[in-house]
Amino acid sequence: MKKALFILLCLLPVLGYCHDTTFLKVHFLYGSKPQKKYKDTESKCFGGMLGGHVGIEGDSEKIVNFLPSGQFHWFAKKSDRHSLYAVHSISNFYAILGSDPKDVKYAIVYVPVTEQQKQKFDSISAAYLQQTPYDYALLGMRCGAAVYEILAQLNVFTEYSIKKTSTKIFYPKKLRKRLLHMAERNGWTVIYQEGTSRRKWEKD
Asked: At what angle do helices 115-130 and 143-153 cross, to 10 degrees?
């Protein structure tokens, strides 16, 4: 009995660590354009070298991401929101710009969060999936700014107004550089995949 109790006490720190260690995985699909000799066979993704996409995986195979819906808006309109939050599987997320997932360049940043932060993320996601909180527009909120806005609510980043957030995080690379810098500084896990040589990819 004493031996069993001793083993249990030794395992408690490990079990506690496993229970308390939760991650949000931020998925970055890099922007790209076809290499010259492949311009007739490779797709011309919207956004090109400053494009790409980003979303947050809170639960396995469920990436929450912000997208346009309907007619594209150059300027944000509060009363006519052409936007939505959606959930994609990992393979569908990386195919969203028309490429095969195995050919794209991506980075996945593992952001450690508490159980309370994870619960708040789940609550925010559920609300945003039910009703979009802002319009999708060129001069407004897009995927990078939307991910920043959620992470700021979780105290991962400094929280700004929607207007300031959309200005500071104008495209995904602006967010990616910040998060990769934080990952390097804090020793967070980052997983990379190099994209096909048929395309020219963004660099960090």
From this structure: 140
